[in-house]
Specification:
Elements: H1 2-28, H2 34-45, H3 47-53, H4 90-100, H5 106-118, H6 132-167, H7 172-186, H8 189-200, H9 224-262, H10 265-272, H11 277-306, H12 310-315, H13 321-330, H14 334-362
Helix pairs in contact: 1-14, 2-3, 2-4, 6-9, 6-11, 7-9, 8-9, 9-11, 11-14
Length: 373
């Protein structure tokens, strides 16, 4: 097992390198980078903003907008790469490039970024006065809240439902519940979210649930039991919208796992010995059938609050990691984009390894040493 773990860890290095390299190359061709974003903001907000963004070099701005020193026309004899820089002194544009690190060649910037990330030095946000790590910590509780409740809800319902469907395989109950599950899985979560808003959050019908936030504005002044109710009141719709996909997957996984175990010889033997169905199901089948469900739990738990929550957080105005990623991409805040990509890619690979180890722990018969990575 030690050799397997070592191989998996070593495999993470080229995988992570490839993810970061591909993302970095794609970003280089995306228009409207951080330099263009800063120039656009400065051009529209005047010299005080320029002085702030360029580190106090507002004196480089030409009076009256500096049209006579247009960086869009020439910059050291060369045509400027930034269309929005018209009216700015070329020295200002150079200062902005230096601040964001764009005064260096792409290859140098990429390897400098990797070296910093290896040391878990993620720097500061380009457009927020806060470090990337602090920014992630600030948004993390919202996403963890959504992930924990979605996991509890999906597994708490899907496991007993999956067992019941396996026992009643082929019955009317199995058919109609499968139809509902497949339908829920096929409909995107954001469409369910919009439907819930229209129906229950002040859309065209009822105003039962709030539309935004995790708690009310007066939450701190409420008694503890009202704080709990207020919190549950706010998360009801987003959790329901997010849980449908995970709920369907876990239910069908549980059903298929139990069906496979029920068809095995030891179940037939137990029945021949006169054991009742409850004893067979929960005394023998359950612990074997739940192996695959337990093994997939770590990955499903992490994925529940690191993936798939962007649209839900945006629709319900929940300021979590998904919404942070969306805002960072729109603002071209590359320091946040690349840092979160690195952290979550690394975390995803680690969780994948943990899932395999959990699988081997709950079922000692599994031997990863004899298998290719």
């Amino acid at each position: 097992m030690a050799a397997y773990i070592l191989r998996r860890i070593l495999l993470m290095i080229p995988t992570l390198f490839g993810i970061m390299l591909l993302s970095f190359v794609i970003i280089q061709f995306a228009p409207g980078g951080p330099v263009e974003q800063a120039i656009a903001r400065m051009s529209g907000q005047g010299g005080s903003v320029m002085a702030t963004v360029t580190g106090g070099q507002g004196d480089l701005i030409s009076p009256g907008g500096g049209a006579q020193n247009s960086a869009a026309t020439t910059q050291g004899g060369n045509t400027s790469l930034y269309r929005g820089s018209r009216g700015l002194n070329p020295k200002v544009v150079a200062a902005i490039e230096k601040r964001f690190g764009f005064d260096k060649p792409p290859v140098e910037r990429f390897f400098t970024m990797l070296w910093n990330y290896v040391r878990f030095d993620f720097g500061n946000s380009f457009f927020r006065d806060i470090s990337v790590i602090d920014l992630i910590k600030e948004k993390l509780p919202v996403s963890i809240t959504l992930g924990v409740w979605m996991t509890v809800l999906s597994y708490g319902i899907s496991i007993p439902l999956g067992i019941r469907k396996a026992v009643k395989d082929g019955s009317r109950f199995d058919v109609w519940t499968s139809s509902v599950i497949v339908l829920g899985y096929a409909v995107p979560g954001f469409l369910i979210a919009i439907l819930l808003i229209v129906l229950f959050a002040g859309g065209s019908f009822w105003t039962i649930f709030p539309l935004k936030g995790l708690v009310s504005s007066n939450w701190a002044s409420l008694p503890w039991w009202q704080q709990i109710l207020d919190y549950l009141w706010h998360i009801a719709l987003p959790i329901f919208a997010m849980a449908l996909g995970a709920f369907a997957t876990a239910t069908l996984l549980t059903k298929n796992s139990f069906l496979e175990e029920i068809s095995k010889q030891y179940v037939t033997t137990a029945r021949a010995k006169g054991l009742n169905e409850g004893r067979i199901l929960y005394g023998h089948v359950f612990r074997n059938a739940m192996l695959i469900v337990i093994a997939t739990f770590p990955g499903a738990f992490i994925a529940s609050f690191f993936g798939g929550s962007l649209l839900i957080e945006t629709i319900f105005s929940l300021d979590g990691l998904g919404y942070l990623g969306f805002q960072s991409v729109i603002a071209r805040d590359y320091s946040v984009v690349f840092a979160t990509l690195y952290i979550f890619s690394l975390l995803g690979m680690v969780i994948g390894l943990v899932s395999d180890l959990v699988y081997a722990w709950v079922d000692p018969r599994i031997d990863f040493e004899s298998r290719a990575v």
